[in-house]
């Protein structure tokens, strides 16, 4: 099964995905991106980091099953990572790529992770972002939420442990079918 995780930025998707993968052996699709590597990230593990020119060359070569420009950077999922998966696979995608993929294949399971506005502001403030940045992110969150009906499940991330068990319950119930 292929699970597509999406939701407003700052919602805690990567932390949730990491926690789920500690509980169960899921494969994770390592995307390609043209953005700069951040401290604590590893090439080939968090992303395959490539230059913008190399990314666009891969687009030309029809290497991606989907790709999007998000902010100033490109992000894409290789066809191989989806086609070669032997286990349940998790994709972490922004909403445009996620909904496009969901519309192409009804076997994909879409999980939209959300968080309430107050909590989102708290997290962004804690990360040291200024008011203008936070306002922009809140507007973006509204836009991202407008896609939520296209997902099969919606989970509110109030507390990481509850969120992880809710998502695992969803996955187990689908596997029992
Ligand atoms: P970040 O730069 O914070 O790691 O990621 C920014 C956004 O890009 C996140 O919302 C993440 O889900 C999304 N993203 C990561 N990989 C891909 C991908 O392969 N395709 C698409 N469409 N979005 C991606």
Characterization of this structure:
The protein is α/β, with parallel strands linked by helices and 177 residues long. The protein has two domains: 1-29 and 88-177, P-loop containing nucleotide triphosphate hydrolases (Rossmann fold); 30-84, Guanylate Kinase phosphate binding domain. The chain contains seven helices and nine strands. The protein has helices spanning 13-23, 52-60, 79-83, 95-104, 117-126, 131-145, 160-176, and strands at residues 2-6, 27-28, 32-33, 48-49, 64-70, 73-78, 89-92, 108-114, 153-156. Strands 2-7-1-8-9 form a five-stranded parallel sheet, with helices on both faces. Strands 4-3-6-5 form a four-stranded mixed sheet. Helix 1 packs across helix 7. The chain is globular. The mean pLDDT is 95. The structure holds guanosine-5'-monophosphate (5GP). Guanosine-5'-monophosphate binds at residues 9, 31, 35, 66, 68, 70, 75-77, 92-94, 97. Guanosine-5'-monophosphate binds next to strand 5 and strand 6.
């Amino acid at each position: 099964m292929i699970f597509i995780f999406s939701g407003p930025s700052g919602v805690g998707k990567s932390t949730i995905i990491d926690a789920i993968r500690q509980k169960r052996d899921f494969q994770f699709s390592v995307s390609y991106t043209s953005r700069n590597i951040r401290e604590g990230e590893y090439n080939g593990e968090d992303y395959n980091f490539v230059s913008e020119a190399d990314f666009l060359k891969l687009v030309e070569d029809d290497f991606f099953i989907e790709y999007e420009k998000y902010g100033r950077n490109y992000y894409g999922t290789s066809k191989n990572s989806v086609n070669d998966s032997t286990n349940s696979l998790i994709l972490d995608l922004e909403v445009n790529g996620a909904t496009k993929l969901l519309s192409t294949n009804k076997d994909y399971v879409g999980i939209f992770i959300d968080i309430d506005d107050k909590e989102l502001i708290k997290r962004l403030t804690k990360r040291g972002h200024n008011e203008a940045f936070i306002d922009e992110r809140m507007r973006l969150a509204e836009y991202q939420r407008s896609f939520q009906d296209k997902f099969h499940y919606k989970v509110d991330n109030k507390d990481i442990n509850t969120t992880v068990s809710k998502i695992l319950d969803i996955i187990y119930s689908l596997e029992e079918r």
